[in-house]
Amino acid sequence: MLVIKIGGGETINLAGIACDLASVETPKVIVHGANALRDELARRMGVEKRVLTSVSGYDSVFSDAELIDVMLMAYAGVRNKRLVELFQRNGVNAVGLTGLDGALVRAVRNKGIRVREGSKTLIKRDLSGKPVAINRKLLGLLLDNGYTPVVTMPLIDERNVAVNSENDDMVALMSAVLGAEVVVHLIEAPGFLDDENDPDSVVARIPRAELKRREDAARGRMKRKLLAISRIVTSGSTKVVIADGRTESPVADVLAGKGTLIG
């Protein structure tokens, strides 16, 4: 079983990924983002995007009802269906789903995000949550009949309300439920960089014992990604690869050993 997370950056080579996956016979689940498209649509619609940084140093997008609507357009709409189209054109029988559909990914609503504003610590509450359960029966129905699930936000919470979450957390949970042998993160960088400003500083391998140190030193989106990856590699034998999603053949490059192997 292969789980592939396709980043939501604007330079990700979606067509190349779809072409590569046509020759991968291993059962696979695709999870994708659409953050660049979300931000573009938000600008067009005059919707403000607010990024919160928790007291522990992790960034997240403040998700009110207006932003959830934009996400539905960007993630569940344009990006998901265009990806399904690309897969179908390359002979991959893809089915596009959000966590809402068939309660595929259940979340628990966050109680609030602790942030610092000046000298005060505040609790910010929004429509976000943590993924806690995967509808394995629905995924199995698709996988066992030759379909490739293409999954994205939003998720469904305990009140049956659409909520935002971290795709990397969903990938970690899905990996555990499906018993994935390999999880691939395709991002807008050649792999994990020792120096985030130097694209030639790719770290070939990060052993389990080194992952916490790397997470503590990381910033922004990579810090949260490493936190989610640590849950995957410390709970079993799954291997994780962070690799470049912008190349001509992103998946073929991973199979050829490029990127950063974690675990």
Which helices and strands, and how do they pair?
Layout lengths: L1 E5 L7 H8 L6 E5 L2 H11 L5 E3 L5 E3 L3 H25 L4 E5 L6 E5 L3 E5 L2 E5 L4 E6 L1 H8 L4 E5 L2 E2 L5 E2 L3 H12 L3 E6 L17 E2 L1 H10 L2 H14 L5 E6 L5 H6 L4 E3 L1
Parallel strand pairs: 1-2, 1-13, 2-10, 5-10, 13-15, 14-16
Antiparallel strand pairs: 3-4, 6-9, 7-8, 11-12, 15-16
Helix pairs in contact: 2-3, 5-7, 6-7
How would you describe this structure in keywords?
8-stranded mixed beta sheet, about 260 residues, alpha/beta, globular, two-stranded antiparallel sheet, 8 helices, single chain, about 35% helix, 16 strands
Count of strand segments = 16
Q: What is the average per-residue confidence, as pLDDT, rounded to a whole number?
A: 94
The termini sit apart by 17 Å
> What is the multimeric organization of the chains shown?
single chain
Can you describe this structure?
- With 263 residues, the chain is of the alpha/beta class.
- Helices cover 36% and strands 26% of the residues.
- The protein has helices at residues 14-21, 35-45, 65-89, 136-143, 167-178, 208-217, 220-233, 250-255, and strands spanning 2-6, 28-32, 51-53, 59-61, 94-98, 105-109, 113-117, 120-124, 129-134, 148-152, 155-156, 162-163, 182-187, 205-206, 239-244, 260-262.
- It has an eight-stranded mixed sheet, sandwiched between helices. The chain has a two-stranded antiparallel ribbon with strand order 3-4. Strands 6-9 form a two-stranded antiparallel ribbon.
- Helix 5 (167-178) runs parallel beside helix 7 (220-233).
- It is globular.
- The chain starts with a strand and ends with a strand.
